[in-house]
Specification:
The complex is a heterodimer of chains A (about 475) and B (about 250). Chain A is an alpha/beta fold and about 475 residues long. Chain A is built from 15 helices and 19 strands. Classes of the chains: A alpha/beta (about 475), B alpha/beta (about 250). Chains A and B meet through helix 12 and helix 13 of A and helix 2, strand 7, helix 3 and strand 8 of B. The structure holds adenosine-5'-triphosphate and magnesium ion. Adenosine-5'-triphosphate binds next to strand 2 and helix 1 of chain B.
């Protein structure tokens, strides 16, 4: 592909998603109604069945109440005040000078190059050209293996049979308030299909795809791993993504057919609001996977961002001998609130699940682990092991653990361990005596504490996640 | 190199150090002995800069300059090392990662480049050999599940890696078997030949057979009440502290 063609493709892409085009004209007025949903669907040139699917979701949503059982407090969202079709970057940014200096500082700390910084803040074209060329070669390798990896909008157009077959099967529209809303109004997200017996040759990441199409605040992701296949998927880049929008309600569905394995890693660093607790993203996400026989789904998450997080990546262990894993580090600082955990639903025989949750609370934040382990009547010899640790920094923050266990089969076993600890003055002093400053000492201790989870992440991701944990705690001590 | 002048320190309302004087010259080894609770660990903490303790008067000089205003890590950067009486556990942080991070932090503070991976490894291997320690030790979580003796050896291992100019060893000999004691002494004597100074806090004269002190101090109730040579350590071992307490009265 020549440089010109590349450029053209980029410009076209940008136009399509309203990134550099005249955003005002591509932005719908605030408000939500059947008419708005029809218009979203029409703008995306969706087939009739998709429009109907959305409308049905909207009707379901109207009948539902916003949940309030989570251990979080926030100003309720005014759903009529949101524009449901708009580019996520409201301002057109042409130079780095216009980007929030705080954000640039964070980039620098993460060791992200200037070019990369421009790309991440949505600036320069030439760099996007670069990444498109990356994305293009990368698409070719995938195509050779028959792997489909594209935006959800594209999947609806190009692979309607797959979308129709699996969309909403793991998280039905009736599942919960935010999932219903997402089903009605989602604008984009990722779609991924790994054919039978294929080991996806590379880690798939929205990091690459996000350059082509900016995903909105209502992302919809669907990953289908056909029999005997394997895929490792990374969500969110480790660089901070500033989101000016208030509500982020994504839905992620994973389908692992017989003997398939999906490894899904997230490093979530949405804008957490400032030190006083103003602003920040409400991150209300529904993530769930279903495992057929001998399949395995492994969720790993490092959550440092958002003002309020409400998120429970879960596994339905439907097939016999299937395995679910959940590894989580959730860090809250300042006034952040996180209510996160998992659900492991054991339906099949000899199913196994592991939960390792590490909460870190600093400042005046609140960090809750909420987990459900359910052993169904057919779940003979099912096993669960849960370990939920909380680490407190200072005495103005809170850590809470809500483990729910339901066992309906007498041969099933669950094991739950929980600890709460504080970073000791003596640990910090010990590190300082060896030459580390206070912040380096805390970063070291935190990373040691979270190691079991960080070890689950792909190598480069783990390194960045470590830095992110350290940065997120800056200013929380001393 | 280290000079402590009329040092008073307290925690809360409680005065623990009450006029300590101590001068350590390059290459010297000083032993501090004294009954439990006399303030030995407090003295080492205050020298190392632990904030819990308030210095109410007096001074601590390093190469003639006061270090009381320096943060603990800044004192470490000068070349001060404290071998802790009770080394803390840091779960999930391997010995090698910890030592690497520490050494590179000290180097950075001195404007030196970080050691590359192979030099770092080589240095660690040498230190392990000197201390007759197993390589597997490097990947263990710092002090977690270490036996008492292993913790103490780990302190000496870190000292060997950091090559301080002055090391305070707070009861590093307690809990060590005879072989380990000899090995620890080997580590100390190795550094000593390179002009490093030591303040060795101990309850037992035994250690001083291996590490011959230039001066022996007796700390009692927050004060150095007696100074002597090696023979003082023998006298204490034989007669305990009562005679000194009487002398003081
Ligand atoms: N953090 C603290 N809070 C309260 N009292 C303290 C604290 N640290 C030390 N002390 C007190 O100060 C006194 C001296 O303690 P220190 O640990 O310095 O003694 P030591 O000479 O090292 O004793 P040992 O030989 O048992 O190690 C003791 O009475 C001790 O209880
Ligand atoms: Mg002591």
């Amino acid at each position: 592909m020549s440089q010109d063609e590349l450029l053209q493709e980029v410009t076209a892409t940008d136009y399509k998603y309203g990134f550099y085009s005249d955003i005002e004209t591509d932005r719908m007025d605030a408000g939500l109604s059947e008419d708005v949903i029809r218009r979203i669907s029409a703008k995306k040139m969706e087939p009739q069945w998709m429009t109907e699917w959305r409308l049905e979701a909207y009707r379901i949503w109207l009948e539902m109440d916003e949940p309030d059982w989570a251990n979080v407090n926030y100003q309720k969202v005014d759903f009529q005040a949101i524009s449901y079709y708009a580019a996520p970057v409201k301002k057109q940014i042409t130079s780095l000078d216009e980007v929030d200096p705080e954000l640039l500082k964070t980039f620098e700390k993460l060791g992200i190059s200037l070019n990369e910084q421009k790309r991440l803040s949505g600036v320069a074209m030439d760099i996007i050209v670069d990444s498109v060329s990356v994305a293009t070669t990368f698409k070719k390798t995938l195509a050779e293996k028959g792997v489909i990896f594209c935006s959800m909008s594209e999947a609806i157009q190009e692979h309607p049979e797959l979308v129709k077959k699996y969309l909403g099967t793991v998280i039905p529209r009736t599942d919960n308030y935010y999932a219903a809303l997402n089903s009605a109004v989602f604008t984009d997200g990722s779609f991924c299909y790994i054919p039978k017996g294929v080991r996806c040759p590379m880690e798939l990441s929205t990091y690459f795809r996000i350059n082509e199409a900016n995903t909105g605040q209502f992302e919809r992701t669907l990953i289908v791993a056909d029999e005997g296949s394997f895929v490792s998927y990374l969500e969110g880049c480790t660089a901070p993504q500033r989101d000016e929008n208030q509500l982020h309600a994504a839905v992620v569905e994973l389908v692992a057919l017989d003997h398939a394995e999906i490894k899904y890693s997230t490093v979530q660093n949405w804008y957490p609001g400032d030190a006083e607790g103003k602003g920040g993203v409400y991150n209300f996400v529904t993530k769930r996977g279903i495992c057929e026989a001998y399949a395995k789904i492994s969720w790993t998450q490092v959550e440092t961002g958002s003002a309020v997080t409400w998120k429970y990546p879960s596994c339905i262990l439907k097939g016999d001998y299937s395995i679910g894993e959940f590894y989580s580090v959730a860090l809250t600082n300042h006034h952040q609130q996180a209510d996160t955990g998992t659900k492991m639903i054991h339906l099949g025989r000899n199913t196994k699940s592991t939960i390792i949750s590490k909460g870190i609370s600093a400042g005046q934040s609140h960090n809750s682990y909420r987990g459900l382990v359910r052993m169904g009547p057919r779940a003979e010899n099912a096993r669960n092991f849960s370990q939920c640790d909380s680490l407190l920094m200072g005495d103005r923050c809170g850590a809470h653990t809500f483990p729910y266990i339901e066992v309906k089969n007498s041969t099933a076993r669950t094991e739950h361990e929980a600890t709460t600890s504080k970073i000791g003055e003596d640990q910090i002093f010990y590190c300082q005596q060896r030459g580390l400053n206070m912040e380096a000492a805390i970063a070291l201790i935190i990373n040691g504490y979270a190691k079991e989870v960080l070890n689950q992440l792909p190598m480069e991701f783990a390194v960045e996640a470590q830095k992110l944990l350290a940065i997120s705690l800056e200013g929380s001590v001393g | 190199m280290l000079e402590i002048r009329e040092l008073y320190a307290s925690i809360g309302e409680k005065e623990i150090l009450r006029g300590v004087n101590l001068t350590v010259k390059p290459g010297e080894v000083h032993a501090i002995m004294g009954p439990n609770g006399s303030g030995k660990s407090t003295l080492s903490s205050v020298i190392a800069g632990r904030e819990e303790y308030q210095v109410t008067s007096g001074d601590v000089l390093w190469d003639g300059k006061s270090i009381l205003e320096l943060a603990p890590e800044e004192r470490a950067h000068l070349g001060l090392f404290l071998g802790f009486q009770y080394p803390v556990e840091i779960p999930g942080v391997s010995v090698s990662n910890f030592v690497k991070t520490a050494l590179n932090a000290v180097r950075a503070a001195r404007g030196e480049e970080a050691l590359d991976a192979s030099s770092m490894l080589k240095k660690m291997r040498e230190a392990l050999q000197l201390l007759e320690m197993d390589k597997g030790f490097l990947s263990r979580s710092l002090n977690e599940g270490f036996s008492g003796g292993e913790k103490k050896r780990n302190e000496i291992f870190q000292m060997a890696m950091l090559e301080p100019r002055l090391a305070i060893l707070d009861e590093t000999d307690s809990g060590l078997d005879i072989d380990a004691l000899r090995i620890v002494a080997q580590g100390v004597n190795g550094l000593r030949s390179a002009k490093a100074s030591f303040v060795v806090i101990t309850h037992y004269q035994r250690l001083l057979d291996y590490i011959i002190p230039d001066v022996v101090h007796v700390l009692l109730n927050g004060r150095i009440v007696k100074v002597g040579d090696k023979s003082l350590a023998y006298a204490l071992e034989e007669r305990g502290y009562d005679w000194i307490k009487k002398e003081v009265e």
